[in-house]
Amino acid sequence: MAYQMPRGTQDILPKDISKWHQLEEMIRQFTYVYGYDEIRTPIFEHTNVFKRGNDSSDMVNKEMYTFTLDNSSTSLTLRPEGTAGVCRSFVEHKMFGEPDQPVKMYYVGPQCRHERPQKGRQRIFHQFGVEVIGAKHPLLDVETISLGWSFVSALGLKDMKVLINTLGDDASRDAYRAALKEHFKNDIDSMCADCRRRYEQNPLRILDCKVDKEKEIMQNIPKMQDYLNEESNAYFQQVLRGLEELGIPYEVDERLVRGLDYYTHTVFEVVSVNKEMGSQSTVFAGGRYDGLIEYFGGPSISGIGWAMGLERLILACEAEGIELGEEPALDAYVLCLSPQAALMSLRVTTQLRAAGYRSDMDYLNRSFKAQFKTVDRRHAKIAVLIGETEMEQGTVNIKEIATQVQQTVAMDDLIDVVDHIFEAEEESTGHCACHAHEEEE
RNA sequence: GCGACUGUGGUGAAGUGGUUAACACAGCGGGUUGUGGUCCCGUCAUGCGAGGGUUCGAUCCCCUUCGGUCGCCCCA
Question: Exposed, middle or buried, A47 (CB in 10 Å: 0-12/13-18/19+)?
C-alpha cells in the first residue's frame, strides 16, 4: 500500500457514519434539554495552554503533538483534551462577565495524543465533553454527572459503574500530600522510577501505581478522608447525597486520582465493566477544577467538567449488543433498461429527488438483473423502470417492492403517484418518512 | 516509550524456495433477449504490506521499515 493513514488514526467510513450521526443527534438533544450550549475551540493552541508549570502528567509531558513552523518561533500543540481550551476561551472572552452564571458549555471534536494504540485508544479520537464554569456547588457536580449518566443510560448501556472520590481543597490536598511523602519517605528508593518521579512532582499519583501495588508500603497508605478539612468533607458528602437523590449508583474509590493535575474536590470515572471492553474501559471521566480559570488569568472561580470518549462509547455499545445507527434505505431506484434510456432516467431521478425522495439510478450499464439486485441491496421502496417502450410512450413503470404491484403512469403523473404510494405506506406502518416535500408546503 | 502476536484479492481465508497463488462470500456476465432476492454455469490477485539482501529463482529464508491487534505505561 503506497499510502496509508498514520498509526493510530482511523477513517470513519460511510458504512459506519450513521452511528456517529445518531450519537451526535443524541448529544444535541441531551445538552439542549440540560441547557448547555456548544463551544468550538481551535484544534491547536499555544503549547502553554496545555503545558502548564507544574503539570507532571504523562499526557502533557510526552504525549503531545507539539510543533513549531519553520518561519515562526511560536510553539503550537494539537489539543490532547478539551478542558484547557475551553477555560482559555472562557477567560479570553471574559465570559465570567456574562449575566447568566455559571456558564454551561459542551463540545464535540477530535483530540490528539501520541500514545501507542490499542483497543479503545487511538492517536486521534473524539470526545464529547461538558464544562460548567463560574459556580461551585456540589449539586452542580451532580448535575454534570447526571447528564453523562442519563446519556449512557438512554443508549441502553447497563454495565456501567460510577467511581468517585474527592481530592479536597488545596489545604486538604497539601496536608495529604505531606502525609504521603512522610509515609513513603524511607522506602521511595526501592520503588519504580515513575514513583520516584511522582514522589517529587505529584505524590498523589503514586496511588495509581500498578508496578509497586503489591508492596507492603502500599497497603497501609494514609487515607485522603483523614486529611480532608471539614469544608471539603462536607462538600463531598453533599455530592454523594445528590447522586443518591437522583438514583445514580456510585462507588467511592479512595485510590481514584485523575491524570490531569488541575483537579480539586470531586473526581470521577464512569467505566464499563463489560468483559469485552479490554483495558481501556473508562467511558467518561472528569472532575472539579478550582484553580484553572485563575491560571488562565481569570477570576478565582471554579469549574467542573468531564469528557467522554466516543470511540469507547461505541465499543461499550458493541460490547453490550446495542445497535447504533441505521443504514438509510433508498426511496426509489430508477432502472435504466437500455443505454438510450439514460437521459430519461436521469430526468426521472432528478424529479424524484426534487420531490424529496432519496433516489438513485444505474450508471454502469448493468444488466436488468443486476439493477434489480441493487433495489434489494439498498432496500428501495419503489423501483422505477424506464426502457425504450416508455420513452416512446412518455410513461414510466412504478413497482412497489413490498406489494409487488406495478403500474404504468404518464410522466406528468409520476410524483403524484409516488406521493400516493408513500402516503399509503405511512398510514399502514405508522412511520413518518421524513421527506422534504412534505415540509415544503 | 516497552512487550507479545500478526500483515495473501472488495471480504473471510488456504498455501508453497521453482512454469497457471486453493476454496468460500460479495461483485460482474449468462441460463431467464424487459422484472430481483433460490438454483446452475462462467468470470474476477501480472499479485502475496513496503524496501533491501541471499538464491539460477522468492509470497515463502534473512535484515530493515511501515501498519494492525492485544497487554504494560498512561488515559477518554
Answer: middle
